[in-house]
Amino acid sequence: MVSDGANNTMAFPRETVLKVASLARLQLTPEEVDLFATQLGATLDYVARLDELDVSNVEPMVHAIELTNVLRDDVLVPSLPRHDAVANAPKTDGKYFLVPAILES
Amino acid sequence: MHYQPIIGLEVHVQLQTQTKIFCGCSTAFNPDQPNVQTCPVCLGLPGALPVLNGTALRLAIKTAMALNCQIAKFTKWDRKQYFYPDLPKGYQISQYDLPFSFDGQVELITNAETGESRPIRIIRAHLEEDAGKNVHDETGRGRDSMVDLNRAGTPLVEIVSHPDLRSAAEARQMLEELHALLTYLEVSDCNMQEGSLRCDANVNLHITKDDGTVVATPIVEIKNLNSFRFTEQAVEYEIARQWKAFQETGKTIKDAPKSTRGFDPDRGVTTIMREKEEAADYRYFPDPDLVPVTVTDEQLAAIRSEMCEAPAVMRKRFQSEYQLSAYDASVIIDQGRLLAEYFEATAKLCGDGKQAANWVTQDVLRVMKERKETIANFPLRPEVLGSLIARVTQKQLTIKSAREVFADLLTAEEDQTPAPSMAQIDEIVAAKGLAIVQDDGAMETAIAAVIDKNPKAVADFQAGKQAAVGALIGQVMKQLKGADAQAVREKILTKLSGG
Amino acid sequence: MSLCDLSAGTLWRKLQSGEVTAVAATTDYLNAITQFDGQVAAFLHVDRDTALAQATNLDAKRSRGEPVGLMAGLPVAIKDVLCIKGEPTTCGSKMLQNFRPPYDAHVIEKLRAADAVLLGHTNMDEFAMGSSSENSAYQVTHNPWDLSRTPGGSSSGSAAAVAARMAPVSLGSDTGGSIRQPAGLCGIVGMKPTYGRVSRYGLIAYASSLDQVGPFSTDVTAAAALLEAIAGHDPRDSTSVNQPVPSYTSTLDQPLQGLKIGVAKEFFAEGLDAEIEQAVRTAIDVYRGLGADVREVSLPHSKYSIATYYLIAPSEASSNLSRYDGVHYGHRTESATSLNEMYAASRGEAFGPEVKRRIMLGTYALSSGYYDQYYVKALRVRRLIREDFDKAFADVDIIAGPVTPTAAFKIGEKSDNPLGMYLADVYTISANLAGIPGISVPCGFTPAGLPIGLQLLAAPFQEERLLRAARMYERETDWVTRKPALA
Ligand SMILES: [Mg+2]
Ligand SMILES: [Zn+2]
After folding, report:
1. Are residues B392 and B459 in the same domain?
2. Nearest CA to C177 among C449, C471, C433?
3. Domain containing B345: what range?
């Protein structure tokens, strides 16, 4: 089996961690930023082994089972009562989902 | 130094399906009852999965065919990822690198009088789901925004044009042309108040400097234009703004990235929404919850056979087949497919396209407007109007009498009597004695009687007063309601000249 | 004697014949939960009243002479990844602490229709990411064979509940081994069906192209019954395959004639504990003794399966988990005032470290400039992995090997080393990438008394063959009768 990548790490730059976290809308503590810089570096180091393979002529495989043309008929299905639709909302007036003001300049 | 505006449109069209693109919720426009047309799928609840609406796909293909696009034999679904409260899954299901259609074109009429046109190229048209709607606090007090997901998951076709448009007026015409095309096909109701047709306009200027070099101004995307007028106004404003900005700053496309602006219809200006945002990274990737779609030539042929004639084709055909002017053909076509069909049926029945066009564009449209009615509810069916016009062309009725009959038929309809029929035309003509009198004997008799009774007028005429003949004609016409005034005039003149 | 002492298949047959009532079985299992779950911590939520009501209804139905469904009142524990209408469904995450789905998952509808009794939701690694339950936001589940050790994961509670005889059968989900690995570590049967065999509708997604729901059981018979009850086409899942479901339970006891078993040399390479290898090789000898033709096969790309998986699964997960933004359901921070602050803080507060790690990894792998290098590349290697299996299954009916490289590890042992944890999925992951079915059956114990699993893999939609092969082995051995000693 492979060596344990944890002791052979290529650190992932902190600013990249912050950029990715911002794309993912994920607030990280400074400790998490450092931790992820190390751990993601190790993981990316490990997955670099795929570069051993020349796969340029291999079709990407998106689905485990290859199906096509799964369609439904344009037929109405009862919707949820509004009460159920908003029941799990962290903030609602019973009609709408409420969010902090979206500023449109 | 002079400039040339360069404009491309991204148009979003809601397809006319009963249900949403990936679930069975209704697509009905229902802003007054928020969040009543949702289910686990369009709420993006954990565990819910999308299944493609076959009708949405069929209507989308129809749309692409009307845009003269190539239809891909293999197409797939991708996730476009961004966070926004009206986007419940955190991604929009859309199409990225393999859209279902591409490489089309639309003929844009550039001169309404002559019917001159130019092709506007379509880069691609793809299928995607709409977002919900955020309702903002308008008081400025920073209260919570409200999210309604009734619209989330409505099927949209996004049509992306090449930047082939050259003026604000052309941008508007392009949108109008798409409106006509898509409503003709019945793929969308294109109701702009309800957001069924809306567009983003990409605008910049190519500036030719005095030394002959050409530079481009930074591209601006004007978002969410939801009327023809706003589209024209916004682009017009933006062209002027960019020209002024260039003269002041000299900034070109190399100095500034693409920015996004919104249009404020109250002030008639575009305002900056986002500039230099961190380059959008949508992280598109194939949606593992949906499977690809393949279409065969037979399926495409079947869809093609359902297509009606496109308005641009119909416009040309009306000109050649019915001898209409480009202008008249456009007036009819622009009123929508039902009116065009009404016109054509009427024209066929009366055998005179030009007359039919006059009646439809003047009388019918006027009454529709007065009554705030659509052609579908217009009481005179084409066979009745056609029959009425035929009597004019066959010289059985004068135009004036026909108008009288037309008005009477409509009045009768208002009195709750059954829909006007051809029999009713005969009744009105008979009751009012409107039929053109073809019987020369009757006319001779009437003329002789009038001449006898009006020696003064006759004397005046013979003394050289040409106008005196008018009084004589008037009296003959009074007796013979359906008479042809021209024929009466000629006969009187002959008689008085001693013929 | 408690009905919990019966093997699941035996209990199921007694329920079917009416020899045992659903209320009696449910009562005994609820008592076992009361007695043992304090130590095991397998359940997050037990629906005692509902379960008893379901059992009572079923017994009444039977006494009216009405036909009863396939499950015939068999109690089932449900991994917290499956939506149950109106019941807390948290996916092991603080994010969904207060979430109650307004709908049942497809498999839950199927279970209700088959007259199963639903016991409640079991603990799991948050969003099914993990192999030990240590990533659960709520509790750590203990291995009933050694409470200081992990039951495996991410279907930790579902495996431990069955191993501790607190449920005869349960449902889990398997994205990279999350059914087979804990089944192996807990000494029970666990099966991942072919991708598309069981609907994912209502299964909270981790990695959509890999996730599949499957059964746990103390024996192969009840696993077959449970799979039969939940499998089948669902028009609400576009990836659900429209193929008839064979009656697994009716052919189960027919041994396979001329069975060809493949042994992949890559599954016996460096890193496999000697005691595991020993037990697995002995199990393969049992098949030889039954007349099976055992031959070597090669899966040359299997050494790339972990790297492939840890690009594809986090990529899909980063997208699937975008919906948890604190707007429509789930945790919302108290502190934020702007929208973007609200998103980032809500997600930062409610996701645990492993979930964050995978969201970060997946976001990076899909981001512009890295997409082809990471995500697309992994999809290409995925096809090579699948083609390896296609070639192997042209030659053999079943591939046999270990489930895990080691027996259950100590709780806390690997929690500081995520990559080390990932590497333990080495034998299970390739079946998910290829979409093929796999089953883990008990095949012995380490000298320290920890269970060892035998993994059998088959070509797509060969669940029937897989279950019959597993049953052939089970009949020759008595591992099924071994129970952990809980006080
Ligand atoms: Mg779009
Ligand atoms: Zn819906």
Report:
1. no
2. C433
3. 311-432
